[in-house]
Amino acid sequence: MEGVERGRGSEAGSDDYDVVIVGASLAGCAAAMLLGRSGARVALVEKRPDPTAFKRVCGHYIQPSGVPTLERLGLLEPMLAAGGLRSRVRIWTRWGWVDPPETPRAYALNLRREKMDPLVREAAAGVRGVELLRRQTAETLLRDSRDAVCGVICRDPDGAERQLRGRLVVGADGRDSAVAKLAGVKEKTLPHGRFAYSIYLEGAKPANFPDSQAWFLDPQWAATFPTDDDLVLYAVMPTVDRLPEFKRDPEKALVSFMANLPDPPPALEGTRVGPVIGKLAMPNKLRGPVAPGLALIGDAALATDPLFGIGCGWAFQSGEWLADSVAPALRGEEALDRGLERYRRRHRSELRGHSFLIHDYATGRRMNPFERALWAAAARDSKVAEGFEGLGARREKPGRTIARLLPRILAVNARHALGRDGTPAPASRTPIKAVDA
Predict the structure, then answer these.
(1) CATH ID of 4-60+112-190+284-353, from 3.40.50.2300, 3.90.1150.10, 3.30.565.10, 3.50.50.60
(2) How many CB atoms lie within 10 A of CB 35?
(3) By three-state DSSP, how is residue 101 classified?
(4) HSE-up of 209 (CA within 13 Å, CB side)?
(5) pTM score > 0.70 for this model?
(6) Per residue in 197-224, pLDDT tens?
(7) pLDDT in tens, 3-54
């Protein structure tokens, strides 16, 4: 059948599966790979016909917290072979640079989505029991006598329908999830006060390459992310009041913004590769990750501010959490509802604290007093910087980390205020010049 790829050993012609996953991007492929390996028959539904399709309006950064999932999936080495770079993140603040420790746990992964997405999709399609169905758009959800979701009706571009039944349906179809809408899952939208533009530049390697760098200018933001083929993603997320000056000439405005940063990267030396990438509206969207017969993963469950670079990592991780949670039920060892509840609790436990902090800062506000104290101490003290890195990399939960660091944060800043730590006075606030666009 055109648009269908079958994993080794899958049964041709059957439309009955254990799991139907709608969306063959990072989250959907991660879940499909692990579920297929556990013995489940999986339909992986993708509406795009092109096997090289990739998410264009997105960064490529995978937080250190997501790297163990890549290792488990067997994707880390292929990504590195494709040119992926391991890097830390150095952060500029008005109190100085925050430099994370040089430990293996602090290294993220950078690989452009243009390379990452086809690689991941091909890996998923090669797993025994996984059937990749391209050119299929989910249009209707099937329900059983208990009103639980039990399948999907898809349509291809020629108008032909296909009915896919499964014990579990998974929405992995992004922040505007059609599956969530079809299921009537309640959605909470939170405001976002910034916009984003980014470009890939060649010949513009920043200092400390291949480390990434971010500038928290309070409230403006900019970053560089070195990646494959010696390219660097230059990205800015200013507050919405600055949008008019960027819309006139996004590339010129972005490069000018970067060139006027404190300790600026060499943006003016670079040559653009590919288009300017822009995203003007980025509301945070939260949905309950489960319903009877249904689970949501990746951005379909939680689409949050991209400023902290968590989207790709959380996509892989949420696919892993779901697969681990429901695999026993799909083997007949327990009820599916029990596995879905396990996933709901895991998703909430891992992401609730981080998403609260991210959403609160996403409004475009200035840092609050505690945040200023934390960032100042992280710039002045290696122990605080180490804990700060664990929090920023999303390996450690906020409440526990903040409680552990608070005494040291207070002591470091008190010593500095008294002039007893030998560090220089705080850096003056460096204004970012208006862009002549």
Answers:
(1) 3.50.50.60
(2) 28
(3) coil
(4) 14
(5) yes
(6) 999 999 999 989 999 999 999 999 999 9
(7) 444 443 344 334 899 999 999 999 999 999 999 999 999 999 999 999 999 9
